[in-house]
């Protein structure tokens, strides 16, 4: 009928290469959306700047002692890396919820592509945003006097670890985004869960300064594991336990929530 | 693809419930290959639910549906290769340009980069959107969006195209543009299932009609059969002198023109309403009036509204007025 050739098998299964191509086309879509609407990058660009300034200068003196803000930079920046990842992961939920209200999702779902590719493309783009936010955060950290006490490779490992953990959290927020009715509701619930997890961790202050029950809570909080791992990778210190715990959490969260999110996406009407 | 018959779409006993609401309550219909089936019904009749079942967006509770030989429930992947869908709401990405939308769809349909680029250019040209190619879709007019939507549905050269109220909310000129495009696609051999609330649209595009209400098929057949059933068009005549109205009505009654029965006079509007079944009758009616020397100031013809069609078929008004609570599209 035409010179245009289709490379996909006719029986309907979608091969790995075709799948990668579909995800690529959808990543391009998301990237073009950002280009069209640059304000959507404000969170990734401004949040790290505002947070590091706030924490170092407002709380840094109280936590590390007046005049010791520079010590606190080395403490809080790796913690903030963990927090950035989470905040960006949260945005995925509202994004997915929003996307679903648009007709274009109907088109995707009537096309011969794996339904997971729409979600995977979203995750690829958000990981990109996470890397941008982390780069800006580290840049600010260095400006404010942070030092790498180990090696560049350890720093990259810390970045990689927070991205992996953040990506696993995205599945939870995608699931939320697909389940809740409005984007505002998604944000509300996400904040409610995240605030205690973020502040009840070793991200901002050493848990030894907290009451016993809270210290116990922070010990089991995966955000503490991630913050400790990133901190010890950059500042030196024991990393084995916190790194493995973080990876275990990331794997566990993904294994449980990713299939649920994809199933939910399939069934959504 | 070998098929034992020539139906591109075969639906048998299709049922879809939303809680207590029976959106589809046992729908049967066929669309012959290369033709247009118009599915006519008021808001909430189940039209959109039908299209969503047939395009694998929702799974029916009971019944079967085959499209291009594929079962909608058991072979959704294969089916998605052969269909295109243009809904009431433009299913393109607002933030992307028209070209980027079409290129993306080409890539999702496994075209090579080169082919996807070429096909996007081709489709923009064909749907007269080349000038707007690089602009974000959010700057497009309603008609341009709908055309882009049709172009997007045509990228994959579908065998069967679903058009769900394709001109709802468009102005008359734009509506005509969309109709022209649909007719071109049909001329190229695409099978179309069209849902609409407008008799005019159904008459213009459809070869056959199925009327549905409250999830059930209440009438079906050729457009002419259905028109004969509901009385065809009404010729509205405004004489130069309203005082002639009674005499004109008498003249037509006496003329014995077959089918010209039930001439009514609307004195308030100074109008004579003459139901007609064919263009020949129209000519004959004018001939009779002219021969008697009545001056005519204005004539037009008027198609029965959906309400009038329903009245003729069921003796009831459309259900949409009383059952606004039945969701056409049940929010998830």
Automatic annotation (TrEMBL), chain A:
<feature type="domain" description="ABC transmembrane type-2">
    <location>
        <begin position="39"/>
        <end position="268"/>
    </location>
</feature>
<keyword id="KW-0812">Transmembrane</keyword>
<dbReference type="Pfam" id="PF01061">
    <property type="entry name" value="ABC2_membrane"/>
</dbReference>
<keyword id="KW-0813">Transport</keyword>
<keyword id="KW-1003">Cell membrane</keyword>
<feature type="transmembrane region" description="Helical">
    <location>
        <begin position="243"/>
        <end position="263"/>
    </location>
</feature>
<dbReference type="InterPro" id="IPR000412">
    <property type="entry name" value="ABC_2_transport"/>
</dbReference>
<feature type="transmembrane region" description="Helical">
    <location>
        <begin position="185"/>
        <end position="205"/>
    </location>
</feature>
<feature type="transmembrane region" description="Helical">
    <location>
        <begin position="155"/>
        <end position="178"/>
    </location>
</feature>
<dbReference type="GO" id="GO:0140359">
    <property type="term" value="F:ABC-type transporter activity"/>
</dbReference>
<protein>
    <recommendedName>
        <fullName>Transport permease protein</fullName>
    </recommendedName>
</protein>
<comment type="similarity">
    <text>Belongs to the ABC-2 integral membrane protein family.</text>
</comment>
<keyword id="KW-1133">Transmembrane helix</keyword>
<feature type="transmembrane region" description="Helical">
    <location>
        <begin position="118"/>
        <end position="143"/>
    </location>
</feature>
<keyword id="KW-0046">Antibiotic resistance</keyword>
<dbReference type="GO" id="GO:0046677">
    <property type="term" value="P:response to antibiotic"/>
</dbReference>
<feature type="transmembrane region" description="Helical">
    <location>
        <begin position="44"/>
        <end position="63"/>
    </location>
</feature>
<dbReference type="InterPro" id="IPR047817">
    <property type="entry name" value="ABC2_TM_bact-type"/>
</dbReference>
<feature type="transmembrane region" description="Helical">
    <location>
        <begin position="75"/>
        <end position="97"/>
    </location>
</feature>
<dbReference type="GO" id="GO:0043190">
    <property type="term" value="C:ATP-binding cassette (ABC) transporter complex"/>
</dbReference>
<dbReference type="InterPro" id="IPR013525">
    <property type="entry name" value="ABC2_TM"/>
</dbReference>
<dbReference type="InterPro" id="IPR051784">
    <property type="entry name" value="Nod_factor_ABC_transporter"/>
</dbReference>
UniProtKB/TrEMBL annotation, chain B:
<dbReference type="InterPro" id="IPR005894">
    <property type="entry name" value="DrrA"/>
</dbReference>
<protein>
    <recommendedName>
        <fullName>ABC-type xenobiotic transporter</fullName>
        <ecNumber>7.6.2.2</ecNumber>
    </recommendedName>
</protein>
<dbReference type="InterPro" id="IPR025302">
    <property type="entry name" value="DrrA1/2-like_C"/>
</dbReference>
<dbReference type="InterPro" id="IPR017871">
    <property type="entry name" value="ABC_transporter-like_CS"/>
</dbReference>
<dbReference type="InterPro" id="IPR027417">
    <property type="entry name" value="P-loop_NTPase"/>
</dbReference>
<comment type="similarity">
    <text>Belongs to the ABC transporter superfamily. Drug exporter-1 (DrugE1) (TC 3.A.1.105) family.</text>
</comment>
<dbReference type="GO" id="GO:1900753">
    <property type="term" value="P:doxorubicin transport"/>
</dbReference>
<dbReference type="GO" id="GO:0043215">
    <property type="term" value="P:daunorubicin transport"/>
</dbReference>
<dbReference type="InterPro" id="IPR050763">
    <property type="entry name" value="ABC_transporter_ATP-binding"/>
</dbReference>
<keyword id="KW-0472">Membrane</keyword>
<dbReference type="GO" id="GO:0005524">
    <property type="term" value="F:ATP binding"/>
</dbReference>
<dbReference type="Pfam" id="PF13732">
    <property type="entry name" value="DrrA1-3_C"/>
</dbReference>
<dbReference type="GO" id="GO:0016887">
    <property type="term" value="F:ATP hydrolysis activity"/>
</dbReference>
<dbReference type="InterPro" id="IPR003593">
    <property type="entry name" value="AAA+_ATPase"/>
</dbReference>
<dbReference type="Pfam" id="PF00005">
    <property type="entry name" value="ABC_tran"/>
</dbReference>
<keyword id="KW-0547">Nucleotide-binding</keyword>
<keyword id="KW-1278">Translocase</keyword>
<dbReference type="GO" id="GO:0008559">
    <property type="term" value="F:ABC-type xenobiotic transporter activity"/>
</dbReference>
<keyword id="KW-0813">Transport</keyword>
<feature type="domain" description="ABC transporter">
    <location>
        <begin position="9"/>
        <end position="239"/>
    </location>
</feature>
<keyword id="KW-0067">ATP-binding</keyword>
<keyword id="KW-0046">Antibiotic resistance</keyword>
